[in-house]
Design brief:
13% strand
Length: 224
C-alpha cells in the first residue's frame, strides 16, 4: 500500500485528490495539510511514502518544505503539484530533491501513474515543462550550483552504466533508455541503481545535473 500525504492550501483540491487517490486499491491518503508547517509536523508523525506538494502555501512554501523534508527523510518521494511552471519553482524543487513536477491540469490516470513511478524510484515531469527542465540543467552546468562527486568515482562506471547516465542526463525515461540500448527495463533500473551507488548520488535528478555539468551528455552513446 502506497501511503500518500496531500499538502495544499485549497480545501477543494485536497479533498478532490483524496477521493480520486483512495479509489486505487494500492493507495491510501493518510493525511492532508493546508500549510508547510502542518506538513512538516504530519510527516514526522505519519512517515508517508509520497507527498503531493503545492508550491504556494502559508507559513512555509512547498519548495522550502521539500528541502526540509528531503534533508530529514530522503526516502520520502515528493511530487510538486501546482498551477505554476515558473523557472525558479522548477529549479528549486528539483534541486532540493523533488521526484516529480506536475501541473494541476494533469489527468487522474497521469497522476496515479506518477505516484507509482516515483515510488519505484523514477521521476515524473509534466511534458509541458520538460523542455524547461532540460534548459535549466544546461544553465546549472554553467552556474555555481554543482553536484559533488568524489574524484575518481566516474572512472568506476562500466560502459553500459555510462550510457545509462548519459541518457538520464538527456531526460529519457527508463523505458526510453531500454529501447535505445536494446535492454530490458529491469536491466536499466539495475544499472541506474549501480550508477547512483558508485557516484554517491541521491536520485536521477542529481545524476542528470551531474551528467550535464561533466559534459557526459554531449558524448555519443556509441563511444567507449
Amino acid at each position: 500500500m502506497i501511503k500518500i500525504m496531500i499538502a495544499d492550501d485549497q480545501e477543494l483540491i485536497r479533498e478532490s485528490l483524496r477521493i480520486v487517490l483512495n479509489i486505487n486499491p494500492d493507495m491510501e491518503v493518510i493525511g492532508v495539510t493546508e500549510n508547510g508547517q502542518e506538513t512538516i509536523d504530519l510527516v514526522r508523525a505519519k512517515k508517508p511514502d509520497v507527498i503531493l506538494m503545492d508550491v504556494r502555501m502559508p507559513i512555509l512554501d512547498g519548495v522550502q518544505c521539500t528541502r526540509l523534508i528531503k534533508e530529514a527523510y530522503p526516502e520520502i518521494r515528493i511530487i510538486i503539484l501546482t498551477t505554476f511552471d515558473d523557472d525558479e519553482y522548477v529549479y528549486n524543487a528539483l534541486k532540493y530533491g523533488a521526484s516529480g513536477y506536475l501541473l494541476k491540469g494533469v489527468s487522474v490516470p497521469e497522476l496515479t501513474q506518477a505516484v507509482r513511478t516515483v515510488v519505484s524510484g523514477g521521476a515524473m515531469i509534466n511534458p509541458n515543462i520538460a523542455v524547461k527542465v532540460v534548459k535549466l540543467f544546461s544553465r546549472l552546468a554553467q552556474g555555481n550550483f554543482s553536484i559533488p562527486v568524489e574524484e575518481g568515482a566516474a572512472a568506476l562506471l562500466g560502459r553500459t552504466e555510462r550510457k545509462v547516465a548519459l541518457l538520464v542526463g538527456r531526460g529519457l525515461s527508463n523505458r526510453e533508455i531500454a529501447e535505445k540500448l536494446c535492454l530490458s527495463e529491469g536491466t536499466v533500473r539495475n544499472n541506474l541503481s549501480t550508477v547512483l551507488s558508485k557516484l554517491a548520488l541521491r536520485d536521477r535528478t542529481q545524476l542528470a545535473i551531474w551528467a550535464v555539468q561533466t559534459g557526459l551528455v554531449q558524448q555519443d552513446t556509441a563511444e567507449d
